[in-house]
Structures
1.
Amino acid sequence: MFEYHGWVTVRESAAAEDDEDFTTERARLRRLVAGIEERARQVGGHGLLDVRWINGEPFVQLAGFANHRDPGIPEFFREVGARAPGSYGLLYVHDDEDRAHPEGFVVHRMVRGRVSEHQDALLSPCIPVLEDPWTS
């Protein structure tokens, strides 16, 4: 089982916006987001993979549930950070085929476009936190 839930606030950089160059910056950001949208169409996934603008800001939302691991999902998350190095967000992944973390979620944390992995302490271990153990 491969379950994932995540979001990214897409930012070209972590620098403050300059009002004088706002139009130029927005045009660059729109081109950057168009590339992310194209890549999202290629990745697909087993669920939600949505790039949209909300109140003038671009966001990525992703969630899904598949029978087996989909390495394209964490790769896409990292790629968004590489394309837009001011971005931040979280991707929670539960992969029962992951030998290091078969019983819990791993959190992929994006800050300033860089992704690091962390053990989850809020939803893990899945049994008994989220589900009861099997009984015979």
2.
Amino acid sequence: MKNLQLFDLDLIDNIISPEDFNQTSLMSPATDIFTDFKKHKALIIEDETPAGEALKLMVKTHVRMKIVMSKDNDFMGIISTKELNEQTIVTAIAKGSERHEVLVSDLMVLRSDLHAFDFNELENATVNDVVNVLENYGLRHCLVLDREHHHIRGVISSSDIARKLHLPIDIYSKTSFSHVFKVIHG
């Protein structure tokens, strides 16, 4: 048995993260900026969750987007803080709903309205390629498909790109790919 020693933390004031070791640039592989659901569990929410409850949960956990699933585990779409905000909820209430009746399913972006990257193409692309393509869409999130296996493989987030590129973007702002593009390209 080794005799391990414990040390005081009084002179330590920071915590490292993977970004401290992995330098991501515009020429890095696009897979460096993508959250792979083979490595990280997808953040999901049920479509019948009350919108106000979902918003509180997302704000509390600092999550900006979740994948919406039905009770039967069918992929329905996505919900983000862009769609799920107090103003949108109040608008739904003004149309005659009670607050608790406004559900995630009422505000989500339907799967039929979404676009996604193909994982195989992403493997041969750079971060710059991704930012340039998505700049025109003004999105904050984009799903990644594994078309060969017919499933959602992951997600790309503008806030993740900004963080990994060490861009001076306020994490509390509504960061979009368009905003990331403007910071990168002056």
3.
Amino acid sequence: MSVRPNQDVAAALGVLLADSYILALKTQNYHWNVVGSDFVQLHTLFGDQYEALSGAIDEVAERIRALGFPAPASFGEFAERSSLKSTAGAPAARDMITALRDDNLAAAKSAYAVIKAAEAVGDDSSADLATGRVTEHEKAAWMLSALLG
């Protein structure tokens, strides 16, 4: 089936892109600023997670472009679209873990919205991309939850 560009899919991908960008920025902040007895473990985990998000951001943006739409690419556009809230400062390590767990679950929800929009128009490529993002965000949330006990 040939897929036509679809504004609903591109819009849902734009939300996922914004969520991914805000999450990557927050994760990088926490990677830089975590302190405490679990520093090495958390510094490494947060670093791995934000590096993975960087690749995902590019993949989502390129899919939006492949559909024929401009990818949002400014802090203002990301803040406008994202279901996540950017944070400043360095909360306690446990609060960082909780925030990142919750944000990964929210990003997974945004990816599910892409799947729904893509399936409605037979866009298997966008649905497949979003399915991969659900898997990664839910895995990250599980790992973070495990740290909380």
